[in-house]
Specification:
This protein folds into two domains: about 375 residues, TIM Barrel (Alpha-Beta Barrel); about 90 residues, Sandwich (Immunoglobulin-like), CATH 2.60.40. Helices cover about 30% and strands about 20% of the residues. The protein is globular and about 70 Å long.
């Protein structure tokens, strides 16, 4: 169990890596910016911010106001601080109340009324509802990463660059003063599909709303940096490691990193100019491996943990979790749903993986987050595939993650001190078990608890002995 010192350290981490959980923090929610070293996010007053996201893609269109509060409250309590949402899933988008977003499906003509969500329920419209969600999220200390328009209508030729510019101007004017907005251009699409639209949206948002970060959400197995790394509007890189397992990749896939999402991080971490990087869509909990065939095995909590620890320890500035039923807000009466969904959103918010994500943030933020770097030189003997070990460290601490609980041969001497105190951190429950104190030299083999198998994941924690 955590001792008093660990509890105190984790309490401090909640302030260091801003989470938006207290009333005082809610009132002082500040826009995000990129740190001076280009590796992570900060609030505008300079406090490091660790992104722990959830994919609530259809939040604006599928949930009532009451359901919205239920969902946001749950995600806040579970430690999430960013919700990824589609503003327009399609040009025919309408909310749960039947309010359409657009006039004649033209993104250049948003359908607004003279009333608003606070004073006139008769005139309550699609954009008033978006306003409501943005406001409620801010009150609860949550940021919204908003996708202006999803990739599919753009790829289908239903959005022109001219109309996209008009629409982006509308969004920027409406939400530039909201403290909790992040813009997520694209939407499960290659940047080369509709390039003029994406460039127009990115440039317009940057010009008219310079106070909010902008990224690009690409298709599976690709990275925003494939097209936009040097774009002035791209504040940070995002990749989608996707929903396939190793043997489901084919030669037609652009990237051959497979499930090794840490390789995407490595690629972007070493690009110039330096920009933060994050896995914005790994395999969802409760979705078939390969996405489309429900006969295939479904991804589980152990898998979302692996993606999280691998990518963050490789240098990512945070991590986005997702659940099949939650991302589509699957409800009773919806019929079969898509992607073999087997649960309803109000049950799926309590899936094991969702409750375990906070332990990743708590661990990372329990040490000096701002000084952390990836460092594979800690690992004397690495493995391939699920046997891969991923290491990160500061000056006086190091973390090494094993997904299978395999023995860790560690090169000592990479952190300060003549001795180190070692412990095992359990990603399933956030508990720490001390191992002992060791000389900080040579190679030491650490044997994680339990049987070596997939999902018996552990983090080796080493701290310098002062």
């Amino acid at each position: 169990m955590l001792n008093r010192n660990c509890i105190a350290m984790l309490s401090f981490c909640m302030l260091l890596c801003f989470s938006g959980l207290t009333q005082a923090q809610q009132k002082k929610l500040l826009p995000l910016k990129v740190s001076a070293n280009g590796r992570y996010f900060e609030t505008s007053d300079g406090k490091p911010f660790f992104w722990l996201g959830d994919t609530g893609w259809l939040l604006f269109t599928r949930l009532t106001r009451e359901e919205t509060e239920q969902y946001l409250d749950d995600r806040r309590k579970k430690g999430f601080n960013v919700i990824q949402v589609m503003v327009l899933p399609a040009v025919t988008a309408a909310n749960i109340y039947g309010d359409s977003a657009l006039i004649r499906t033209n993104v250049g003509q948003t359908l607004t009324t003279t009333g608003n969500q606070h004073t006139d329920s008769v005139q309550y419209d699609y954009w008033d509802h978006v306003d409501f969600v943005v406001s409620k999220a801010a009150q609860k200390g949550l940021y919204l990463a908003l996708v202006p328009v999803w990739g599919s209508p753009v790829k289908a030729g239903l959005v022109t660059a001219k109309d996209a510019g008009t629409y982006a101007s509308f969004l920027a004017d409406r939400y530039k003063h909201a403290p909790n907005i992040i813009w997520m251009n694209g939407g499960d699409i290659k940047g080369s599909d509709g390039m003029d639209v994406w460039l127009t949206i990115g440039k317009t948002l940057q010009q008219k709303d310079p106070g909010h970060l902008i990224t690009f959400h690409p298709r599976g197995r690709t990275q925003s940096s494939d097209w936009f790394h040097d774009a002035p509007w791209l504040a940070f890189n995002m990749f989608q490691s996707g929903h396939r397992r190793y043997n489901q990749d084919t030669a037609a896939i652009d990237k051959q990193y497979g499930e090794d999402n840490w390789k995407y991080v490595n690629a972007d971490y070493n690009r110039k100019p330096v920009k933060p990087v994050i896995d914005g869509e790994p395999s969802y909990e409760g979705i078939p491996q390969g996405l489309h065939d429900p006969i295939e095995p479904f991804w589980e909590d152990k898998d979302v943990r692996r993606y999280g620890y691998w990518s963050v320890f490789a240098g990512a500035c945070g991590y986005t979790y997702g659940h099949n039923a939650v991302m589509q807000m699957h409800k009773h009466g919806d019929g079969k749903g898509v992607y073999g969904v087997r649960e309803y959103w109000e049950d799926a918010i309590n899936a094991p993986g969702a409750g375990q994500m906070k332990y990743l943030r708590e661990l990372i933020c329990s040490r000096n987050y701002a000084a952390r770097i990836p460092d594979q030189s800690l690992i004397a003997e690495d493995g391939k595939g699920y046997q891969h070990l991923q290491a990160t460290r500061g000056k006086d601490y190091a973390f090494i993650y094993s997904y299978t609980g395999k023995n860790m041969a560690v090169n000592m001497g990479r952190i300060q001190g003549s001795r180190v105190k070692a412990a095992w951190y359990d990603p399933r429950n956030g508990q720490t078990k001390e191992i002992g104190t060791y000389p900080n030299k040579g190679v030491i083999v650490f044997d994680p608890p339990g049987e070596e198998k997939e999902g018996n994941d552990w983090v080796l924690v080493m701290d310098s002995v002062k």
